[in-house]
Design a protein that fits this description.
CATH superfamily of the largest domain: Aldolase class I
Radius of gyration: 20 Å
Number of helices: 12
Number of domains: 2
Number of strands: 12
Strand content: 15-25%
Mean pLDDT: 93
CATH class of the largest domain: Alpha Beta
């Protein structure tokens, strides 16, 4: 069993983190992950710092991406993004004072064009380490004593891999931990995450922990990441969206225990319906049903008839339609041999 992860004064045990994912890791999803257990640190969706400030100044409701944050169990990280140090610091201080978050994480890894090319944020900033330094340093000062962490990719492109340099900058600026996704921004999610490259970064850090991220879709791969690479923690991302029990499986494997089996298809269906009820309680039937379409597709992934189910559930707009599609098309038993 790897040692607990220490991020500043925060102890993350087990050292398995749930990745912040835009459009997915809201309070409903986090509640379900927490019910299964196994993740030492959960995170919100990434929050646009500039948008947060605008809402605040116009006395509007704070972003839906902060739904549940004030009241849910700790530890909990909130990830924010922007390219302006003063804006980031202002939002970070509010998150610490008003929301009492456990960690403020900075997104330097998002490869989506709307964030990179249009807003010059996320992984775009990997080409400007000095600007990253200024943002981190300003945020660390504003959030103290709450730890500030950073998430990066290997670089902007395979021809411009600068993760070692960036890692040193992140630590020198005062960040308490570094998470690295093992692809470049240009790669998006194509190909395989390069865990050798992630592991090499450890020698460029003096004291802060290194968290590896990418392609961890089984308990066995989580164990292998700790066994084969020089990381202090791991972060599970896309693989958990339709399998929120993956964290519990990985934690059991790290303890040397028997890995809990996948829930039956009927049990997975019940988890999905529980998720749907949580979403509609917050957003109402109309908006909640539309939001649930993408989650339902995740729960179906890899199952018999998944494409057929997705084609139907992708257009539902009411609870009646949603339950009818689930009853008719979501498999509850494996096909007979």
């Amino acid at each position: 069993m790897p040692a607990p992860l220490r991020i500043g004064d925060l102890v993350v045990d087990p050292p398995i983190l749930q990745a912040p994912m835009a459009g997915f890791t809201n309070a409903a999803f986090r509640q379900i992950v927490r019910e299964f257990g196994g993740s030492g640190l959960l995170a919100t969706e990434m929050v646009n710092a500039r948008g947060f400030v605008w809402l605040d100044e116009n006395e509007a409701e704070h972003p839906d991406r902060l739904w549940g944050v004030a009241d849910e169990p700790r530890p909990l990280a909130v990830q924010i993004w922007d390219n302006d140090a003063a804006t980031m610091a202002k939002v970070g201080r509010r998150l610490v004072e008003e929301y009492r978050v456990s960690i403020v994480d900075i997104n330097f890894g998002c490869p989506v064009r709307q964030v990179t090319e249009k807003a010059h944020s996320g992984s775009y900033l990997l080409r400007e380490p000095q600007r990253m330094f200024e943002i981190i340093q300003r945020l660390v000062k504003a959030c103290r004593p709450t730890p500030v962490t950073a998430k990066i990719r290997l670089g902007c492109s395979p021809e411009n891999v600068n993760c070692n340099e960036v890692a040193r900058v992140v630590e020198e600026a005062g960040a308490a931990a570094l998470t690295v996704h093992g692809r470049t921004a240009k790669d998006m999610f194509r190909g395989n995450a390069d865990w050798e490259r992630i592991s090499e970064i450890k020698s460029h850090l003096r004291a802060i922990p290194l968290i590896g991220n990418g392609d961890l879709d089984s308990a066995e791969k989580v164990v292998a990441a700790f066994d084969n690479y020089n990381v202090d923690g791991v972060m599970i991302a896309r693989a958990c969206l339709g399998r929120p029990w993956l964290f519990a499986q990985a934690a059991a494997a790290l303890r040397g225990e028997t890995i809990p089996p996948e829930p039956t298809l009927a049990q997975q269906r019940d988890v999905m319906l529980h998720h749907y009820r949580l979403v509609t309680q917050r957003f109402g039937e109309d908006k909640g049903t539309i939001l649930m379409r993408k989650y339902a597709c995740c729960y179906a992934q890899g199952k018999r008839g998944a494409r057929h189910f997705r084609s139907h559930v992708a257009s539902v707009s009411s609870a009646e339609e949603f339950y009818a599609i689930v009853d008719q098309h979501f498999p509850i038993t494996d096909p007979q041999p």
